Amino acid sequence: MRVIFKLSLSVLLSCVFATASAQTPTPTPTPSAAQHFTKGGLVFDYPNGWTMKDMSSEDAQEFGFSNNAADIQMRMFVHKGKVPADKLPAAKEAFIDPYVSQVEKQFVQMGATPTKSTDTSEIGGIKADGVLLSASLGGEPGAAKIYWAIVGQRVVVLTLFGPDRDIKKFAPAWDLLRSTIKIEEQKPAAAPSPKSSP
After folding, report:
1. Does residue 196 belong to any structural domain of this protein?
2. CATH code, domain carrying 149
3. Residue pair 62/17 in contact by the 8 Å Cβ criterion
4. SS3 label, residue 48
5. Are the C-beta atoms of residues 112 and 138 closer than 8 Å to each other?
6. Per residue in 75-134, pLDDT tens?
7. How far apart are CA 63 and CA 52, in angstroms?
8. DSSP secondary-structure letter at 168?
9. HSE of 119, CA atoms in CB hemisphere, 13 A
């Protein structure tokens, strides 16, 4: 059953997320059991032992996180444009709702019958709305948990996918990722000093 769920997980996530040219980030290790990432104003930590794949594009910073010992995968999507809080419903309609529908359809295409319910969490200390898609793949109960919030005027979407047993087992990895996300204000490049004429 474990192999079937792992295969289904790979198929689902490869179908759902558009692939972009992968970049190799250079995370800076921190003294704790985590790696620290900072780029383009986005800051977060993720656990040692996890592999991060950077699939960022011109429009968004996007990352996938996996661990050979875990059947779960974690995904992060951070839109690069600034979005005021009152525009979140429009952003949800434009790209979050279609993404949730796409994940749901993938479950159905793999022979599962997902049940959908609302859920909440926190992203970087900010209340996040979400959707819980529960299903059984290969006889193994599992879920896709999708959460979104505006953090530092940027839309952040997090996805946790895998069998229920591993979602519970690796909860500390998920909690570290979602709780450490921050958007830092980037300072504009300093204008060059005018040269004095002789």
Report:
1. no
2. 3.40.1000.10
3. yes
4. coil
5. no
6. 999 999 999 999 999 999 999 999 999 999 998 998 899 999 999 999 999 999 999 999
7. 7
8. H
9. 20
For residue 17, give its domain range.
2-183
Cα 48–chain centre separation: 17
CA–CA gap between residue 67 and residue 48 (Å, rounded): 10
Return the amino acid letter for 1: M
Sequence-ordered list of residues with C-beta below 8 angstroms from that of 119, at least 6 positions apart, any chain: 129, 130, 131, 132, 145, 147
- 161, 63, 173: which is closest to 103 by C-alpha? 161
Structure tokens at 197: 């004429």
Q: Is residue 18 part of a domain?
A: yes
Per the DSSP assignment, residues forming a β-bridge with 117 are: 132
Do 62 and 78 form a contact (C-beta atoms < 8 A)? yes
pTM of the model: 0.80
Domain count of the chain? 1
